[in-house]
Amino acid sequence: MRAAAITDDRTLAEVDLPAGEPAAGEVRITVAYCGVCGSDLHMLGGSTPAGFVLGHEFSGTISAVGAGVEHWRVGDRVTALALSGCGACPTCRHGHSSACAEAAGRCPGVGRPGGLAEEVLVPADLLIALPDEVDDRAGALAEPLAVATRAVNLAGPLDPDTPALVMGAGPVGLLVAEVLRAHGVQQVRIVELREARRDIAARLGWTAVGPDSAEPLPPGRPPVAFDATGHPAGFARLQELLPIGARVVLVGVPFEPLTLNGLQMVLKEWTIRGSLGYSRSDMEEAVALLAAGRIRTDLLVTETVDLAGAGAAVTGLADPRSRNVKVLVRPGS
Ligand SMILES: [Zn+2]
Ligand SMILES: [Zn+2]
Asked: Is the pTM of this model over 0.85?
């Protein structure tokens, strides 16, 4: 099969690899689409070994079923959890499955070969069925949408009058805004540095402003805010904008330390929490939102490339001039 693997000079190249047969408890999936993601860029720049196949946001059709796998058949359309714990340890039992010590290692594109390939082997307990209403392109967005769904679910009670502020108009920020709308929240403001991304947010119908905009949030209830930048400057600016009683969910992954204005947090009684990955129920909710047509995936997918274009798609995520939101790779094309 064809796949896009990490090279010694830290890009991706198309290679030929054996598709492999599913071991006991696994299935093999013919990948339809695989999204590229900021964490792919992070892994490419990190210590992930050359030869590894990235890709954790994929949709496809089961092409082979290993021994002992029940409930799944060849031809079933699926996506997969890309961060899912063992299910048995205290971390998992307390509802933090994504933070399980085993979560990364068992998941395709993170701890084992992923979906930037014509075929991918996946433990059957990670599979999520895609209903007919969710086509393969939308199905590849279920994983990042589950990240957004969890962040919104962890934000606490929401009602139509709760103002919402989203820092960052990348895929996760825009998907958070879409999930908020699906939850009935009517006042969502997005703050985004890049003009190109503000334009995309505007095309989706969102009010998107630059970080220096002085426009306050609408008065009324304390807002709920989401940092989808994972960037120290984004979090710093967010704190300047937050009024009394704000709730904040950090959903972007801050690889550098963030600075918290503790005095303002106390004086303004903010609640700040982190959100990592998703649970199975968050992913099932994400697929249900897609099936109900509540998420405008057509506008979020800005480019589709073949495996030969996967490397440029990943490195392009770091280009501030890029006009892309979500790029999908179509390994079979
Ligand atoms: Zn991702
Ligand atoms: Zn666990």
From this structure: yes
